[in-house]
Records
---
Amino acid sequence: RCSRDWSSDVCSSDLAVAPAFEKWRPAFWENLGASIQLHSIEKLIVIDHRDCGGAGIAYGKDAVDTADKETETHRKALAEFRAQMQERQPKLAVEAGLMALDGSVLMFPG
């Protein structure tokens, strides 16, 4: 039996929207959809982290080589993830943010 507060970690989950991970995308969305259905998830909290190697692969090292560019790259990726999630799961609430290496989190409004 699952609790109301269910948690799972998926490496670079929001990067499933990145062109570099196009082949991975169907499996990601199917797995996430099944998890939402099986566990009656009503809210998804997506937290990226700074110094993410996956973001460098997905968007290029230049997109994350300064703190400002890294923040903007993650903000855009999370906004696109949120938009695609809205298409697939319109009743699901999505919160998104970027965690610094010290554990502080910058939340992106949506």
---
Amino acid sequence: FRCKQAAVKLLGGSCVRCGYDGHIAAFQFHHKDPKKKAFNVSRVAQKSWKVIKVELKKCELVCVNCHHIAHATAYSDPRFLAELKRYKGTEPFKLPRRPSVRIRTSALLAF
């Protein structure tokens, strides 16, 4: 988690495509040139920060939506591309709040 925090900070802290700057879990690292990719930045358990920084310089920080769109456009059909052009991407997706529900343990044991 600390490594991802540092990586997000190093790359500017917001999505380079839509400007999203919310929760850290929504950020991914997109390699600008896949041919120069040495390893997947999200799987760096045994690598030093120095090595990770070298790989991060080959990446751009993007939100998960923009990352999926970037990969989908490479092999997508024209209908999807038309919808993509209409997408504004300025509002981050917000999950609706879940209502708090209390369940009595005795009610569960009755079954």
